[in-house]
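Researcher: Structure for this, please.
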Amino acid sequence: MFSLAYKRYVLMTLTIIYTLSFMDRIMIGILMQPIKEEFLLSDTQLGFLTGIAFALFYATMGIPIARLADRGNRVTIISITLALWGGMVMLCGLVTNFMQLILVRIGAAVGEAGCFPPSYSLIGDYYPVSERTRALSIYMMGISISIAISYMLAGWINDAYGWRTAFLFVGLPGLLIAIVVKFTLREPRCDTNKYSANQVSMPSLGKVFSLLWRQKTYRYLVAAITLINFAGIGVGQWYATFFIRSHSMTTGELGVWLGLILGISGAVGTYLGGYIVGRYMANDVRAQLRFMAVSVALFFPFTLMMLLASNKHFALFMLIPGSMLALSIYGPVFSIIQQLVSEKIRAMAIAVTLLILNLVGMGLGPQVVGIISDYLTPMLGVDALRIAMVIVTFVAFGSSYYFWIAGKTINKELSEKQCHQVDSCTSQIEPEPVKVSL
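Model: Predicted structure, token format:
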């Protein structure tokens, strides 16, 4: 139906949107120290700003937006929410107090919530199962590209013009790309009427939750990615502040280092995760989950070496394997979730997943680090943040455990789904009995 060139254009455009919509989250990590100094904030307040204040609305608004995406025009939804995101990010540069900053961050969260579930669902329609893992891994590389660009831009702009200018600079492209999306991307449902009959029989929200909850594998996967998000984002959001406090680095210097290291290693890790799974484990979902379990378990020792290193260059070097391992799992795990659910609830499934993992991972991770850091500061001084990050990193082992036990149930549940689909198709084509009049 769609040419290979157009499918690549769609994937590239959606990846750019994901890259852009993630930038404000990365930028605020390196800008936390200057924001703290201007508004005289505690680490607990910084954790609230970058964690639960953003994650609560990002996660909860994803549910109604995904509901619309499963029923309506996903291209229009992406366009509108991307424009909202761009406007709110620009307003971050105009705030005059901490409360205003929280409110515009909430607005940015709502805008960003409308980008991922519809995009994820679109990729599922444009790419068949055999190509989906690699396509989603390329899409997920937007995180790493965003990290590379955001850190370098934020560090340089902050040193030259201040942290407010960085937000103004990043928000504007969101408004422009929203227009491009609206007029160049096509909604497959409009072209094929593929879902016209299904829209009438869309399952209720309660039914969706029930269907997802009954799948053990889905529950295990959500627990696994929630815990690695808690450890990865909880610690990662404080990387820049840690290097500023513990290694006396400037934001400009850090922007280059973190941008290159986390951006390149994250992109390589994301791509390799999709490549390894697609190339060597395409027909063995259990092996894919074992691969993810080992990857997140290894995240802990490398991050621990980074946090305890006395030399800043060795600490920065240790970010490379940690970043590659943490990001290698996202393409494969989201591809597995797509296989577990039906097409009618694909966007809703990812929204429910994001609701849980972002409330706990993105929301509580940075917040818990900030609280522990403030608690330990009277005793440990500048090293309080370091120890708080070490404590939170331990959670990665819980993620490894859930990926491992998901491998015990995945094959059975995929088989049950296939059998159910065959039975449904058979019942739809079974001829009605012929009534004979005597």
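Researcher: Any notable elements?
Model: The chain has 21 helices and no strands. The two ends are 50 Å apart (CA to CA).
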